[in-house]
Amino acid sequence: MNVLILGGSGYIGERLTELLISKKYNVSVATRKSRKILNPKINKLFEIDWNNLSSLRDACEGNEIIINAAGASSKESEENYEEVINFSKIGTTNLIKAATMQSVKKIFYLSTAHVYSSQMTGKINENAKLKNNSPYALAHSIAEKITLEAQYKSIIETKVLRLANCFGAPVSINSNCWYILINEICKQAIIEKKINIRSKVNNVRNFVPITTVINFIEYLIEFDKFELPQLINVGERYSLSIEDVVSRVIARLEAKLNITPEVEFHFEKQNAQFLDYETLILKQMGFDKYFSFENEIDNLIIYCNEHFK
What is the CATH number of domain 171-205+237-274+292-308? Predict the structure, then answer.
């Protein structure tokens, strides 16, 4: 099966590319900026202009499935608001047009759980209202709407996956993933033998192993014979406070490397928030227990120890 990954040089894109190639998919990668793609087994590499329909059409040609993992980080979205919003509007619209012209069967858009709220609390399922007006969340919600409407209008089959906070080892050490809390504290522990937490320890977030995410995407590509919803929350079966996350990471550091880093919290402890990020589809398909939290942390610790020690 021929698959095109947009944003294939990013954190999730590189891990997904690696997995799909190992599963014998014929994978092409498209990126906005010229960058060395580490995996030599990709089929084709495209440097695309999202404002140019012809550029996107060339990349879509011959592919049955498109994974849209492209998008700016939260920091980039804040710094380049108009550019990022226009990218979501024009780029996503052009992608739908290009994919339709080339008879692509299906598009998966990788969005974020942060479209729901800047401070996620309570029970959140796919029917919850989107309340986050940050540039990052708005950019994703705009791209979501355009992607979902394409199927409503019978243009092309689409699915949107709202990903919780992915964590785990990247393919490339230069991947833009070291701002992610679990990735960051594992790196800190190896380099500094110390962990600094500048988030409120009572904050509760949903963290999901990147191994679970990429294997769920592969499952949807290969076996999506069921009438699954267009919009799917992708996360772990439980949410954790920042303090709980730190404790889990320290336990794995002690088990794997016999390291017990000093921890410094910069906020006083308060009552823990409640968050239930509902992932009913993953539970129904058994993916809520696909890859253990501890195994992902172990792999991340090993990666950090090899690259940052």
Answer: 3.90.25.10
